[in-house]
Every structure is written in C-alpha cells, then in structure tokens.
Design brief:
It is a single chain. With 323 residues, the protein is α/β, with parallel strands linked by helices. The chain is built from nine helices and twelve strands. It has one domain: NAD(P)-binding Rossmann-like Domain (Rossmann fold, 3-Layer(aba) Sandwich). The protein is 37% helix and 14% strand. Helix 2 packs across helix 8, helix 5 runs parallel beside helix 6 and helix 6 crosses helix 9. The mean pLDDT is 93.
C-alpha cells in the first residue's frame, strides 16, 4: 500500500448510508465473524447486521452477562469473556474462539475507549494504547491461523479522525513525562491505522486483508468517560444530552463503513487502507482540520507501520505474523 492508493473509489454508499443499506441483499450464510465490543454502540449494530445477513458472530465481551442480555434476540451469536486490557485473557479468548470454529472470515475490532483519565495496565502501559491497540493486536495475531484458513478473510479495525491529533510518540508512547487524555487517544487511533497497514502487508499472500476506518462522529458509550459538561462545551450535546453537533451520525450510519469494509467487492483486491463514509479516504494535509476528513500520511506510512509492529510484538509477546 502507498499513499497513492488512498483515493476514493466512487462507492455507491456515502456518509448517510446505514448498516441496513450496506448489507441489503447480501447473504453471509456460512460466514463466521468476531466483533469486539459487539454488544453496545457501533458494535451492537455491527453484530445485528452481520447476524441478520446470516453470519455466525462471536462477541468477546468484558461484561459477558450484559452482552448476553443485549444479544438475547440475535440468532447465531456466541458471547465469550474477554478484557482487552488483560492479554492473558485475550489469549484465552482466542483459544476459545479456535474451539468454536475452524476458520474466521471477519475480525471486526470495534471495541475501544476514549479520553480516559490516566490509567496504567499490564506492566505500566498507558491504558488507551493498551486497550485500543495492544489488545486488538494480540487478538489478531492469535487468530491469524483461523483467518488464513478462510478464503479472503478481512480484518477491520475502528480508528478515528482523532488520529490527526498526533503521530506515534516514539520517544514516550506511554506518557511517562506527563499525561494528556486526548493525545493518548489520538496516538491509539494512529496505532489502529498503522496496524492495518502492516497486518495487510503480512497477510495478503494468505488472502487476509486489513482495513482501518473512521466511523464518523457518533454519540455512543464511547463517551462514557467524559462528563456531560465536556460534551456540551464541545458542542456535541445540549444540557439534556440531545445530540446537536453538526455532522453527527446515527449509530447505524456509524456502523456502515465497517460493514462496507467487511463486505464490499470494491475492496476485494485492496488492503491496508484507511476508510471513511463508506469509501477510501484521501490523504489530508498536515494542518487540515480534523472535521475535513481524510487520513494523515503518517498514519498510513509503511515504514512507521513496520516499526510499530516490532514495538508491539516486543511489548505484548504476541506470536508474530511473519512473511
């Protein structure tokens, strides 16, 4: 993948398309998908959409009882316990998934945290990088044999326009010198984008392709660590919690780009790309406003992606995908 590949394809869908629009007429019978965070917000719409189209969906959940309740009316759905901040638990979940299926067609990394207070997990890792990137990185590496066993598997990871806040802080990725919750979020979202670039480079010969995406601006449980006043001050909601921000999507519209990434034939021979509004995003200028869309060049740079991959293998001890 090169930045010249980051060009819109002329998708028939757009920023207003819903999960139902993207999946209309598709038969996913015989398809097996894993959806992290698949029981709330965008993840719930993703799970429901895939299952309605006939896919079998496995939902690893930090709160499995809550997940089972949310998905009680969804046929063909299995819930297993998993906390992305606990890598031993991530490996246990991957082993359980391997016991449920002999191949995996889709891995949808939808779960995430945003703008959290400073927390340390594992050996002192900054928690947003650990949950959003290291947890999904480890899960994808552990599930790679199942992905390679499928025909044309896809890995889809939710990044965000928040990646424009910062490149990887190579000098201090865990904020040892002072914490900023928004820069920590931005770094984690850049990591998500770079992960897709290198995972795709390693997996394409086995037919495994990877994509990162910005789902759009949506009010979901992702904002749970923010006060209502913070959201009011940013112009997202009013004092009653009603969404008033310009350009906000519904959760179904927010899930659409991920489902398009998982199913679109336009992406059949592509990978390592950053997507938004159900199309490939353009490369944005370094100083372009976040809301103007696009992806920063540093978030799709193959050399940076390879460097982050090595850092992530060293940190997590994950079984590396090699090529």
């Amino acid at each position: 993948m090169t930045t010249s590949d980051q060009q819109p394809l002329g998708s028939p869908f757009s920023l207003t398309s819903t999960a139902e629009d993207v999946l209309a007429g598709l038969d996913l019978s015989g398809t097996t998908a894993v959806v992290t965070g698949g029981y709330s917000g965008l993840g719930l719409h993703t799970t429901r959409g895939l299952a309605a189209a006939g896919a079998r969906v496995v939902v690893p959940a930090r709160r499995p009882d809550l997940a089972r309740a949310a998905l009680a009316d969804v046929d063909g759905c299995d819930v297993i316990p998993m906390d992305l901040s606990d890598l031993a638990g991530v490996r246990a979940a991957a082993a359980q998934i391997a016991g449920l299926c002999d191949r995996l067609d889709l891995l949808m990394a939808v779960a995430g945290v945003m703008a959290t207070p400073e927390r340390r997990v594992g050996p002192g890792w900054e928690s947003q990088l650990a949950v959003n990137h290291f947890g999904h990185f480890t899960l994808a590496c552990e599930l790679y044999p199942l992905l390679a066993a499928a025909e044309g598997a896809r890995v889809v990871v939710n990044s965000s326009a928040g990646h424009t806040l910062t490149d990887i802080r190579w000098h201090d990725p865990h904020f040892r010198t002072g914490y900023d919750k928004w820069l920590a979020y931005g770094q984690a979202k850049t990591a998500n984008a770079l992960f897709a670039v290198h995972f795709d480079a390693l997996g394409r010969e086995d037919g495994v392709r990877a994509f990162a995406l910005h789902p759009g601006k949506i009010i979901t449980g992702l904002q749970r660590e923010m006060t209502v006043q913070e959201q009011i001050d940013r112009g997202w909601v009013d004092e009653h919690g009603n969404v008033i921000g310009a350009g906000f999507k519904t959760p179904s519209q927010g899930a659409a780009t991920g489902l398009w990434a998982a199913t679109s034939p336009l992406l059949g021979d592509r990978g390592g790309l950053y997507l938004e509004d159900c199309d490939v995003a353009h490369v944005s200028a370094p100083a372009a406003p976040m809301d103007d869309g696009g992806v920063r060049a540093y978030a799709v740079d193959p050399e940076a992606a390879a460097r982050l991959w090595e850092l992530s293998v060293a940190a997590t001890g994950a079984t590396p995908v090699t090529r």
